[in-house]
Please model this.
Amino acid sequence: MKINFILNRQNVAIDVDPMKRLLDVLREDFDLLGAKEGCGEGECGACTILLDGKPVTSCITNAIHAEGKEIETVEGISQTELGKLIIDCFDETNAVQCGFCFPGFFMSSYNYIKTDGERNLDKIKKALSGNICRCTGYKKIFESVMLACERAN
Amino acid sequence: MKFIKPKDIDNLYETLENGEQQYLLAGGTDINVQINNGTIRDPNIVYISHLKELSGIKEKNDHIYIGSTTSFKDVIESRIIKKYLLLVHNSLQNFASPLIQTSATIGGNIANGSPTADVIPILLVLDAKLIICSKSNTHEVLLKDFFTGYKKNVMKNNELITKIVIDKNAEAKQQTFYKKVGSRNSLAIAKVSVAGVKKVSHEKIENIKIAVGSLTEYPRRLFEVEKYVTGKKLTEIDFEKVEELLSTEITPISDLRSDKEYRYHVCVNLIRTFLNE
Model:
């Protein structure tokens, strides 16, 4: 089935099985390797992308869900001003350990700062609660998002 | 495997008439897991996410209508839900995770009918009704009469849930209660959940509704317990009797999340907490 959508601000069209996981479409058909497969069941958040500006787990989202929608991935967002600011904060607070979960944390952090952005630890914890870090470095991740909120405002 | 994307709602009803077992795909958060792990093999899929008639929240006269493909995020953030159904708004805050809330739909949570489905006990105590449609028929079913067994319900192959209907005053002047016990706040599948509404006047329980999740084949109301405590003062309630009635109404199981003794005791304690509030 032919599916049209906007991918990181570019119109794209692809002929694909409509049930193919959106994560696989991004990784295999568009060579965007930022979103990762962790659990494959929507629980770990390593595959987080934005679908029409809202964060979703792309491992349990289908290609058809992208039809007519706007998709943003870590590759696109990291080029934005806010994206760069967040990366700098992750960097300065040494928030990244193995890095596997980070594209997901990055997307959820970006979405939080963009839609709310209050420098509030409880809110940040909740906004990132769909992302799991097996290195368990949550404290530094939260610190970096607190810092990013402060700078973004 | 067949995949159909109906061009409009009439075409959807037409598609559902072909007599085959077909899976409706909305948010896909549950069916995709089942397809990926092989629980569902070679399914016929009918995509419904794009059909605008099936989503959105409206108020009309005394009722609130929630389209079946409305996402949990939209339910939680809805101005109408915040105004009239604070129990729904508050209880769903910890539903799955913010990421799943964006995709998962309220009708999907009901139709999938998991014993642990978070939204069902809440809707049960609010006396929610479902509007079920097919090409030639539209009828209403009370949510309490919808399930017939583990992940089984009264719907036929050619039907779908189009709306969930709740009385605007379902919570009015009542105390509400919801507790979900899981391993962590986010992304936890409930070990036990209890929802309730009650009205107490002159210390007597005038009316009460209690529903539980994760303790039976499908979430259900505790009619016997309700009947026993109605009309009584708190001091008149014999909690041993409540436990006895409860043991006839729930059949907790042991699974990877909890054992049945634990579930039973937590349920007793939560009901006691609700009655004492």
